[in-house]
Known about the structure:
Largest sheet: none
Number of strands: 0
Number of helices: 5
Strand content: under 5%
Radius of gyration: 28 Å
Amino acid sequence: MRWVVTTACFASLLSLSLAARAAPESPPDVGIARSQRAFAEAHALYGAGRYREAMARYEEAYQLLTAATVEARARIDRLAGEALQREALGATFIRVKQEYGDFKERYGLILDEQWIALASEITVDGPDYVARIDDLLDGLRDAMAHERAEAARHLSARVPVFQ
Length: 163
């Protein structure tokens, strides 16, 4: 039962909402708000018959809106990339968790310290989260492979070969 609860906790931590992530340095909303104000000012200038000033302000508003749109698109692309990386990491974690469960049944708790370290790191988000957790998962897989090879080597050394 403890294993199921722990797995559910890990899965929920890995699938944290990207909307809850830190706000960007310069939100696109600020640029859009500036462009809206510039459009309103340009419209007021046009209504007052100050056509040259209105055209210059319309141009400025358009440039602000274009910059905000480009920034928003870049942020969307970045967040989508992070979401895909986290989804792949979640799938990798599930595979390694299953591998470790099988390993633990056969070889015992010899890598439990490494598993606990991985479980602790999963709870700490940060800019290098995906790379850090991926490295820990790879390390655990390598350690399991090493222990399996060592066990096989010791087993083959004890079995006499008859010719």
